[in-house]
Specification:
heterodimer, A: 198 residues, alpha+beta, TATA-Binding Protein, B: mainly alpha, Cyclin A, domain 1, flat, TBP_CS (chain A), transcription (chain A), TBP_dom_sf (chain A), DNA-binding (chain A), TATA-box-binding protein (chain A)
Chain lengths: 198, 534
């Protein structure tokens, strides 16, 4: 395969992998319960639900295991956030659906989809952000007046990374776990290039 | 002839698209100049900003955004590319808008226009802040010292990820003190626009670097080789180390506890051997029969479940007992039991009487898991059931039931909720009543939230000319019409009614003209005829 003249991803030299695995911190998923819901009814009969129609048009429900939060809308659609793995997110969503079922609604479980995954890790060395923003200007945005980290928008895979001077990296925007790992493997050699000489 | 009779009142949509664009650009230019002058930007900067604005408009970036935000973003972009010492905070102060809102617009603009400004150098701000701090003759010297301090801070990795103004403030404060100026922290922060705690933090960080230990003279001459790590990195490393230490410490504690408990055991054994036999109440517990009954009653709850489950529960209970055995034995007053338990673990004594209700498999929450492990795997690897039915595997119903309120609880919550949301409920009722009434009257319109068009006041005018003027003012039909001429056409008519004869040649034209103006000037008898070509 030919290497393109203007590579869309930063070129990674053939070196060994970093040995660091990003940890997943948050998963956001959606599911369709496929039935109209009476939010007032749900809020008044569930222990862990809050509903402020003036502020937001959905019931906010929480469960302890897996520790997650769900937004349940009257159309029957639901958003589940806070899980640390795909399986946990699915289990949590099913638990919420079960609660809704027990409250008397014919809830189904259609089109479960993971919408966003957030991971984080530590490369263990300080990173020169000013240098990175100079050489990778088409991908990076670094405004210390607004945010202390560098915002790196990787094209393939389409992930946004927040890179901090302390060496901590946050990766977000993934639909699959592999995207996070791939993005980190792509960025690690670049970050090594801007490692502080100690 | 028939031809196209351009109507005055209507038909102005033809040129509306270009008019709107021109107007937007004009408006933008005006605002840029107004804001730019407040920032004292030169003409070149203002022109560049206007160019950015034109690009933004052509890319439709102004849609859905406040014009002022876009203008501010264009100006700040110019400031960055030209390297002027203006901060986003200055713009935010002038416009009284949250700096992060402006920042969002600015980032978007920079990304869409593919303009990447280099990172801000805090050295840019020194002359500006030094001037505002009024060092008089020594301004240059203080600035130089401050610059040198900043260079040192940069080498010590203090500036990455921080607001440049905060660093400037710290550098200027130290420089001022070095030159015997008593500038207080409050004065500096008023100029630099950071918080007092931020400034103190920067000073503390600088204090931690080896350079802070040099004297003033040494500092001006020597440059230390070593570069420090960024403060956030050192803090992170420290935290990591503390966590590791804690882990090691807790592990050591466990080891010690083990040692202590083994000593306890030995002491206990010695005590046992020298203790007299149990009498009275406790004597019952030493008998084997009662013990058996007790254990079977404890385990009897699980009779309904599989034997394997029972075996597993037994095993767990036994393990649990062993653990407890070693830790709590000293506290037990049922000496007889302990003695018995010590002898033979085959028949565990009544644990229930030892420590209250036993942890059953159910209360440990592993009933389901155990069942799952024991039963054959019927489930397919792919969990997607075609019809969207909720897959209940792995969900403990009792756990779910705990999330649902009972009758009394639900009533109480309902009361509280009604009180909290009384206003909202009232609004909803009124809305429904309104909709019902309108439905009855047959005038109910589906989309209510749409804003109605601006209602214009009816024009009050004494003459037709005035009426036309006022209408044109309001409607702003076209910039191509020379309003002066239009005005004069009418006024001339009213002044010279005698010129009727002259215009007979142009009668056809004037007739056309008269038709054009008939809307507003129907009441005027003559003047139209006297209109000639100007």
């Amino acid at each position: 395969p030919l290497t393109p003249m203007t590579p869309m991803t930063p070129v990674t030299p053939a070196s060994e992998s970093s040995g660091i695995v990003p940890q997943l911190q948050n998963i956001v998923s959606t599911v369709n319960l496929a039935c109209k819901l009476d939010l007032k009814n749900i809020a008044l009969h569930a222990r862990n639900a809050e509903y402020n129609p003036k502020r937001f048009a959905a019931v906010i429900m929480r469960i302890r295991e897996p520790r997650t939060t769900a937004l349940i809308f009257s159309s029957g659609k639901m958003v589940c956030t806070g899980a640390k793995s795909e399986e946990q997110s699915r289990l949590a969503a099913r638990k919420y659906a079960r609660v809704v079922q027990k409250l008397g609604f014919p809830a189904k479980f259609l089109d479960f989809k993971i919408q966003n995954m957030v991971g984080s890790c530590d490369v263990r060395f300080p990173i020169r952000l000013e240098g990175l923003v100079l050489t990778h200007q088409q991908f990076s945005s670094y405004e210390p007046e607004l945010f202390p980290g560098l915002i790196y928008r990787m094209v393939k895979p389409r992930i946004v990374l927040l890179i901090f001077v302390s060496g901590k990296v946050v990766l977000t925007g993934a639909k699959e776990r592999s995207e996070i790992y791939e993005a980190f493997e792509n960025i690690y050699p670049i970050l090594k290039g801007f490692k502080k000489a100690s | 002839g028939a031809g196209k009779t351009p109507t005055l009142g209507g038909g102005f949509h033809a040129n509306l698209g270009k008019e709107s664009r021109a107007q937007t650009l004009q408006n933008g230019k005006r605002q840029i100049h107004h804001l730019g002058n407040q920032l004292q930007l030169n003409q070149h900067c203002l022109d560049t900003a206007f160019n950015f604005f034109k690009m933004a408009v052509s890319k439709h970036l102004t849609r859905g955004r406040k014009m002022t935000h876009v203008i501010a973003a264009c100006l700040y972009l110019v400031c960055r590319t030209e390297g002027t010492p203006h901060m986003l905070l200055d713009l935010s102060d002038l416009l009284q808008v949250n700096v992060y809102v402006l920042g969002k617009t600015f980032l978007l603009l920079a990304r869409e226009l593919c303009i990447n400004a280099p990172a801000i150098d805090p050295c840019l701000y020194i002359p500006r802040f030094a001037h505002m701090l009024e060092f008089g003759d020594k301004n240059h010297e203080v600035s130089m010292t401050a610059l040198r301090l900043l260079q040192r801070m940069k080498r010590d990795w203090m500036h990455t990820g921080r607001r440049p103004s905060g660093l400037c403030g710290a550098a200027l404060l130290v420089a001022a003190r070095m030159h015997d100026f008593r500038r207080t922290v409050k004065e500096v922060i008023r100029v630099v626009k950071v918080c007092e705690s931020t400034l103190r933090k920067r000073l503390t960080e600088f204090e931690d670097t080896p350079t802070s230990q040099l004297t003033i003279d040494e500092f001006m001459k020597i440059d230390l080789e070593e570069e420090c790590d960024p403060p956030s990195f050192t803090a992170g490393q420290k935290k990591l180390k503390i966590q590791q230490l804690e882990k090691a410490l807790s592990k050591k504690l466990e080891d010690f506890e083990g040692e202590i408990s083994s000593y306890q055991d030995e002491i206990e054994i010695e005590l046992e051997n020298s203790r007299p036999k149990a009498k009275g109440v406790f004597a019952n517990f030493t008998k084997d029969d009662s013990i058996e009954d007790n254990t079977s009653s404890v385990l009897g709850e699980e009779e309904a479940e599989d034997e394997e489950l029972e075996a597993a529960a037994n095993h767990l209970n036994k393990d649990f007992y062993n653990e407890l055995h070693e830790k709590d034995r000293v506290k037990k007053i049922e000496d007889g039991e302990c003695k018995n338990g010590n002898e033979a673990l085959v028949r565990p004594p009544a644990l229930e009487s030892l420590l209250g209700p036993l942890p059953t498999a159910a209360s440990l929450g592993i009933t389901e898991s155990i069942k799952e492990c024991i039963s054959t795997k019927d489930r397919e690897p792919g969990e997607n059931t075609g019809d969207g039915e909720l897959d209940l595997s792995g969900i403990d119903d009792s756990e779910i039931d705990r999330y649902i309120l009972n009758e009394t609880e639900a009533q109480i919550k309902a009361e509280l909720w009604m009180k909290e949301n009384a206003d909202y409920l009232k609004e909803q009722k009124e809305k429904e009543a309104r909709i019902a009434k309108e439905k009855e009257l047959g005038i109910y319109k589906e989309h209510k939230p749409k804003k109605s068009a601006k209602k214009r006041e009816p024009i009050q005018a004494s003459t037709a000319g005035e009426a036309i003027e006022k209408m044109l003012e309001q409607k702003k039909i076209s910039s191509k019409i020379n309003y002066n001429v239009l005005r004069d056409l009418n006024s001339k008519g009213s002044n010279t009614p005698k010129k009727e004869d002259d215009s007979t040649d142009d009668s056809t034209n004037t007739k056309k003209l008269s038709r054009r103006k008939s809307i507003a000037s129907r009441n005027i008898a003559n003047p139209v005829n006297s209109v000639g070509k100007r």
